[in-house]
Structure formats: structure tokens, C-alpha cells
Amino acid sequence: MSSSPPAAITVRRPRISFDGVPRHWGRDPFETHFLNALSSTFPDGEAFFVRSVLAYREQIDAPELREAIRAFAAQEGQHSRLHAEHLQMLIDQGYTGLAARNRLTRWMMDVSVRRAPRASLAGTAALEHLTAMLARKILNDPEGFTGRMHPAMAALWQWHALEEAEHKSVAFDVLERVAPSHPLRVWMLASNTLGLFLEILDRAFYMLWKDGLLFRRETWAQGWRFLFGTHGFLRGLGPDYWRWYRRGFHPNDVDDSPMLDRFRPLIDAETVSRASG
Ligand SMILES: [Fe+2]
Ligand SMILES: [Fe+2]
After folding, report:
1. Alpha-carbon gap, residue 154 to 165, rounded angstroms
2. What is the DSSP string of 2-61?
3. Could you tell me the distance, in angstroms and rounded to a whole number, from the CA of residue 73 to the centre of ligand 2?
4. Which ligand minimizes its atom distance to the CA of 46?
5. What is the pLDDT of residues 135-177, one digit of tens each?
6. What distance in angstroms lies between residue 190's CA and the mean position of ligand 1's atoms?
7. Chain mean position to CA 200
8. Distance from the CA of 177 to the center of ligand 2, in angstroms?
9. Which residues contact 142 (CB under 8 A, 6 or more apart)?
10. In the predicted model, what is the mean pLDDT of residues 1-17?
């Protein structure tokens, strides 16, 4: 299969204020807390991605890939920063159990980077496959997702999604150069998909429980609709997901350039101009 050329990776430094974001900023409490849960893993998760890739930077000779690593790390650093601000909002709202969960996952990721750098890099590449998939979902279905969110949260997700699509091949390209292994790739996506899903459910259920909504039938109906309904978050992801398991897969097999061309001007107008000011 022919691959599209790698996308340009632009480092944006947006400022998004979470002042005034209501407790339930999505269509309903389940959607809000599922996405809150995902967001709350990013401050440490993104730092883990960066450490995992930078651990191999000195082994990369190709100047374009070295430059892509630099831009990838800068983008993920910005994602960490803004999702940390969002996490602080959640802690201030009383979801303090998120901080304890992050202490545990931070410790686990730290051990992983130090003791199992190859698996950490492969895990990062695998999780970047998931974020690239979700980026396509979020950007291509504004009616289903960002269109019905509080504007600050919509801006956070759209900006992050765009940059995930821009740098989707960086960790993969590093992995292919320093530790190419199809079984490792397969195992790391399978195990990380399950691990991330359970982590998100644990955090989402915790926040719904804090709100007194976990055991309501309506909450479960919201969950079904959000995950599997007409615009469901997981709906239609199968072919995109399974692509990874094929031998010879490359992230650029999916040509995201029409999507990037469409959304870059919109998101740059919001971010680059403000950041350079
Ligand atoms: Fe990111
Ligand atoms: Fe990423």
C-alpha cells in the first residue's frame, strides 16, 4: 500500500481558559466523565510518550526524523500542559481521586521507561495509533462530538486531535528503526488497548459515583449511546484499529492530508496567532 508523505508538525502554544466550564460540559454526564477520564491520563501519559521516544533519539541519524522527534516532543509537552490545567479544574471540582490514580500510573510509567525502554517505545507507538484514530473521529464528526461541547473543551479536543494527526508516524518510525518487531507491535497494541480502556472506565465510574449518578439507569443509557450510538465514540473504528496488526502497516497508509488541510486554518487562527503574541 502506498503511504502519504509525512505531515508538517507545527508546534502551537494555545491558551485555553477553563474558567466557567460547567461540571457536565458534554452532552451528558457519561460523555463528560468518559472524556474527562481520558483527558486526566494525558498530563503524565504524554510525558511518558516523550521520554520513551527521546530515549532513542541518539540512535537516529536521519535529520528529518530527528527534527520530527523534536517537534513531536514539543507538541506533546503542550498537550501535557493544557490537559494538566484541565485536570486541576477536575481536582478543584472535588474529583481528588484522579490525583491518586495519576501518582500510581506515573510510578508505573517511570519504571517502564527505565526498565523496559523498548516496550515503552512500542507502547507509545501503539497508543499513538489509538490517538490518531480518535483524532480522525473527533475532527471528522463535529456534529457528534465537539459541536455540542462547551467551547473551551471543544477547542482543547480539536487542537489536540489535529496535532495527533500531524505527528502520528513519529514514534512508529523510531520504533521501526531501533526495534522492528511485529509480535512486539501486536502485543503492545492489544495490551495497551485493554489497559487504557479499563483505566478510563475506572476513572469515569469514579467521577460518576462522586456525582451520585453511577447507579442510575439513565447513566448507562447515556454510556451506550455515547460509545455505540449513531455518532458513537467507538462506532466504526474497527477497520482503522485492525490495520495496525497487519505486517507492513505504516501510519501514513491512512491519508489524513485532506482533513489536516481543512482543519489547520481553523485551529491555527485560534492558536498560533495567540501564541506568538
Ligand atoms: Fe498528545
Ligand atoms: Fe501523540
Report:
1. 17
2. PPPPPPP----------TT--SS-SSSHHHHHHHHHHHHHHHHHHHHHHHHHHTTGGG--
3. 9
4. 1
5. 999 999 988 899 989 999 999 999 999 999 999 999 999 999 9
6. 20
7. 12
8. 19
9. none
10. 84
